[in-house]
Amino acid sequence: MKIDTFFAELKRRNVYKVAIAYIVGGWALSQGVAQVFPVFDVPNWVIRAIVLLIILGLPVALVLAWMFELTPEGIKRTQTADAMPATAKPKKYVWIYVVVIGGAISIGLFCLGRYTASNSASAARTERATVPGKSIAVLPFENLSDDKNTAYFSDGITEEILNALAQIPNLKVAARRSAFQIKGNELDLRKIGQVLGVAHILEGSLQKAGDQVRINVQLVDVQNGLQAWSEKYDRKLDNVFEVEDEIAKAIASKLRVQLTGGAGQPLVVDSTNNPHAHELYLRGLTLLAARGPGLLEARNSFQKAVNLDAGYAQAWGALAVTEFLLPSYGLDSFEASLPQAELAAQRALVLDPNTPSAYVAFGLANTFRCRWSEADQAFRRALVLAPGDAEAVNQYAQFLSTVGQLEASLREIERAQQLDPLSPIIGVIHAGALAALRRDNAAEAQIKSVLAAHPEFGAAYTWAATQYIDRKMYSEAGAELHSLGKLRGQNGEAKALLARGMADPAQRVAAVDSLETSPDNADIRRDPIWYAFYLVSLGQRGRALDELEIYAVKPNSAFAPWLWNRGFDPLRDEPRFKAVLAKLALPYTPAVIMEP
């Protein structure tokens, strides 16, 4: 067969058309496979095999096109199709429609793939950009000791290394609560890095036997999962501080950050030579981080530690912070706790003027006593000493909110949440800061996320109810108050009645009576600002002002930032309310432009 006759025969038998249609259709199919299969976690080798089969199928399709013809009566051999009448032969140009449609699908899938890949790459770049390279999470060290009751010791060692690293400027250190919440979760390191927003993770194990301790540590790069550094330390417990400092410095060196005060200055201060006092201190730290009723036991542990070693500055500072937190959780009165907390903080600073927790304690003390300038100075000093301390940042944010610096407060609490993304109390305070700025959708989303992650955290229900009352969403507020009551061992009805009384004038008298007399609402009555908030929401403006005047004379509330909530808006033009703010040396208008 002559060459020109051969090409003419290819054209007559539609081989060209089949080739074009196959290539377009195969390309479209390969694009679809490449886009859809990864969604269902189909292995890459399967996708590659399908694409290879599509390519190998082209010569097969061409051979079949030479031998057979598609007609209205079905597939016929080419010779048979040639002998058929014209009406029975395939329609001309049908193949063009197939090519055009296949081409459109192919181009669409190709563009979708490019767009998806571009977005994925952009998202990956954004993720890498938002996670600073100088950032680390210290995961709880695994306790390999025979005595599993000493788990608090391995947790405490972890905390001390974490706190040491938090003193290094420009190094982001995920806070204890978030890092320890990962404990026991089967998450890979990349996922942990994403959750905590860090580029490096320190893992370790600790084995204690008598007065000997072995610590194994490894530093892992989250992006590639490779081990950047590892080391083993065998030491006596009387040198445990030296070991902690050695580990902290090694990590800092690997992350190429500059140590505070020069390379020779220790990051972990050897503040006691009494191993038992140190163990009590470490145990107290674990209880302090857990909050709730465990704060009482934390106080006892710190007290025992300073009884064994009166020169233990860190234990005195931790004791001071614990004392200040007790009234906020209904575990002691402000009258009893504040003097004890101030004495402990003073003792810590006499022993070591650079104890960050003591300055946090003094910041809290001055806030409770409405000494705003002194409180600001104390918090700022704490943050200079420990810039990565999420608790110090959190308390400073609450202070700023109290004095009406709402935008600044939001910035600080957002920074605290970056350091401690899984902390329930920081999440709650963040929601409150958003609500104070009238950013209702963001505030609601934030408080819901806290409730979903921490359904046993009572403060989240308290603040959620407040946000809903501010927005006059009384049904939702009632549900949160009912949950709060149930969480506290009540039937929930006394608290839920408060929201129903706000919504329905017919139930208001009963709601006010419940607020003022029910044992289930005694916790509200103990705090003058919390109490005043519910009184004004139930229309009892005079009684609410009475409570605020009591607070102005004798500040003893854990809810001072609520003074800027819209729930108090009905009182803002009242002379008595203005007098309260003046006595507290607070501005009449917060330093922010409110959003609608």
- Helix fraction bin: 55-70%
**Silhouette:** globular
Global structural class = alpha/beta
Strand count: 8
| Average of per-residue pLDDT values | 82
Binned strand content: 5-15%
Q: So what's the oligomer here?
A: single chain
Q: State the low-pLDDT regions, or none.
A: 117-129
The number of helical elements comes to: 27
What can be said about the biggest beta sheet?
6 strands, mixed
- What is the CA-CA span between the terminal residues? 85 Å
Could you tell me the radius of gyration in angstroms? 34 Å
Question: How would you describe what is shown here?
Answer:
It is a single chain. The chain is an alpha/beta fold and 596 residues long. The protein has 27 helices and eight strands. The chain has helices at 3-12, 15-36, 44-67, 78-83, 94-130, 151-166, 176-181, 189-196, 240-254, 275-290, 294-308, 313-325, 334-351, 356-368, 372-385, 390-402, 406-419, 424-436, 440-453, 458-470, 474-487, 493-503, 508-517, 522-526, 528-537, 541-553, 575-583, and strands at residues 68-71, 74-77, 135-138, 142-143, 172-173, 200-209, 212-221, 227-236. The strands form two sheets. Strands 3, 4, 5, 6, 7 and 8 form a six-stranded mixed beta sheet that branches. A two-stranded antiparallel ribbon has the order 1-2. A hairpin with a 2-residue loop joins strand 1 (68-71) and strand 2 (74-77). It is globular. The model is unreliable at 117-129 (pLDDT under 50).
In short:
With 596 residues, the chain is an alpha/beta fold. Helices cover 62% and strands 8% of the residues. The longest helix has 37 residues, at 94-130.
